[in-house]
Amino acid sequence: MKLLEEKIRRDGVVKTEDILKVDSFLNHQMDVALFEEMAKEWKRLFRDCPINKILTIEASGIGIACLAGREFGVPVVFAKKSKTSNLAGGMYKTQIQSFTHGKTYDVIVSEKFLSAEDHVLIIDDFLANGCAVNGLMELVHSAGGTVEGVGIAIEKGFQGGGDALREKGIRVESLAILESMDPKTGNMVFRPQPQQS
Ligand code: 5GP
After folding, report:
1. 129 alpha carbon – ligand 1 mean position (Å)
2. Of the chain's two ends, which shows fewer C-beta atoms within 10 Å, N or C?
3. 29 vs 24: CA distance, rounded Å
4. What is the whole-number distance in angstroms between the Cα of residue 98 and the centre of ligand 1?
5. 36 Cβ partners below 8 Å, 6+ apart?
6. Is residue 92 in contact with ligand 1, taking CB distance under 6 Å?
7. Residue 194: which pLDDT band, with cuts at 50, 70 and 90?
8. pLDDT tens-digit readout, 85-115
């Protein structure tokens, strides 16, 4: 998606070879008009899927997921990172290793908000190694639901998580895919995406 790539080039900061900072428009301050365009693009890409729920993970997926929820006309659920290992009942749970902090979190969703009837679109801000998406898929499968696809804002293609999911037959639509980034020059190379506007 050209608009997002341009925004990343203009306002993204390459911190290291594998960490991109986008806190001026995506995951701290939020460019809601851009989120709206991203949501429209996911809606276009997943127009043939019977999506009735969106699932994301706190905190930085929530903003983009809300706009996507409006566009699809479906509820948005966010998985919560729980600090207590002694979790209450009535929850689907899994563990996710945080790419940015290195820690492993217990992640939960109430059984009230995911079921076998659900056809879920998973949304997140970044896809790196795929731990977050795999954990969210596990929660949907625990409920007996169907993962229709995965919508990502920025995939770091060189970390392999997205292509590993695609090889398993999962539909992953990332609006910008970075093939490399250089912390010295700030240079970024994007994967060409002919199907996107
Ligand atoms: P994964 O689980 O795919 O390895 O990493 C995805 C998760 O880690 C996302 O939920 C995102 O919050 C975080 N993340 C991964 N890479 C980056 C990055 O380069 N910058 C930022 N800000 N977050 C990242």
Report:
1. 8
2. C
3. 5
4. 7
5. 67, 71
6. no
7. low
8. 556 689 999 999 988 888 899 999 999 999 9
pLDDT in tens, 164-192: 999 999 999 999 999 999 999 999 999 99
Residue 58 predicted with pLDDT over 90: yes
Residue 82's pLDDT is: 85
For residue 19, report the distance from its CA to the centre of ligand 1, in Å.
8
Which of 16, 95, 100 is the best mutation target for the ligand 1 pocket, counting ligand atoms within 8 Å of the beta carbon and taking the most? 100
Q: Smallest Cα–Cα separation from 57: which of 156, 194, 152, 193?
A: 152
- pLDDT band of 195, cuts 50, 70, 90: low
DSSP assignments along 43-83, one per residue:
HHHTTTS---EEEEETTTTHHHHHHHHHHHT--EEEEEEES
Q: From start to end of the chain, where are the E strands?
A: 13-14, 20-21, 53-57, 76-82, 91-97, 104-110, 119-127, 146-156, 172-181, 188-190
Closest CA to 196 of 11, 46, 26, 21: 46
The answer, yes or no, to whether any atom of ligand 1 lies below 6 A from the CB of 14, is: no
Q: Determine whether the shortest distance from the Cβ of 27 to ligand 1 is under 6 A.
A: yes
CATH architecture of 2-190: 3-Layer(aba) Sandwich (3.40)
Whether this prediction's pTM lies above 0.85 is answered by yes
Q: Is the distance from the beta carbon of residue 8 to the nearest atom of ligand 1 less than 6 Å?
A: no
